[in-house]
Amino acid sequence: MIKRLLSFIAVFVLVALGSPAWADPHQDTINVFKAAGESGRFFKSAYGYAVFPTVGKGGFGIGGAYGSGRVYQQGKHIGDASMTQVTIGLQLGGQSYSQIIFFEDKRALDEFTSGNFEFGAEASAVAITAAAGAKANTAGNSAGLSGNENDAKTVGRYVKGMATFTVVKGGLMYEASIGGQKFSYQAR
Fold first, then answer.
1. 105, 121, 159, 188: least CB-packed within 10 angstroms?
2. Mean of pLDDT values over 108-116
3. Residue 144 contacts residue 167 (beta carbons within 8 Å)
């Protein structure tokens, strides 16, 4: 009887503690952006979006970043994407962040999913989990400020059918660089 009770308690504890491991990082990131001010409004009108739960970035003169994510069309998962970035300039440190790209219409989504898509030229300043930055690139403009992912605030608008938002997760990175992001897409 005691062995059964201990077994039951052990299973209960493993299930209770193990539940977060079953969490979907893509959906968790979508929830962060839905609650992050203006980016939340984009979900109502966007034709689709690409979400990258974690992008790791680092640099010392030359930098790079990588992340993988999912692409959604009208809320339905249609494929997977990866993002790579190379930068050059004054930069030091590392950081991780979440990124979402909204597609205003079918044309913008088709452009992104047509193969290898590139954009970028950015300037940003990041410290720990507080970030302030601005981007202007061929995919759209964005700006944001966040204390951490739980109280992120975002502002932005569509440019050429795309709007990009980021939320810093952690790290320390000083950067005044130029570079570009390249996205690859694989249909589901």
1. 188
2. 90
3. yes
C-alpha separations of 157 from 47, 64, 112, 131 in Å: 14, 26, 17, 19
Which tokens go with 20?
Answer: 């977060």
Provide CB contacts within 8 A for 1, sequence distance 6+. Answer: none
Is 106 strand, coil or helix? helix
- Give the pair of three-digit tokens for residue 26: 């893509």
Residue 139 three-state SS:
coil
Q: How far is CA 46 from its chain centroid? A: 16
Q: What is the pLDDT of residues 9-44, one digit of tens each?
A: 444 434 444 444 567 999 999 999 998 877 889 999
- Two structure tokens written together for 57: 């970035």
DSSP 75: T
176 to 58, 66, 90, 130, 162: CA distances (angstroms)? 13, 19, 5, 17, 24
The CB-side HSE value for 110 (13 A sphere, CA atoms) comes to 3
CA distance 45 to 31: 16
Q: What is the model's pTM?
A: 0.73
H/E stretch holding 152: none
Q: What is the pLDDT of residues 46-58, one digit of tens each?
A: 999 999 999 999 9
Q: State in Å, rounded, how far the first CA of the chain is from the last one.
A: 49
Q: How many CA atoms lie within 13 A of 22 on its CB side?
A: 6
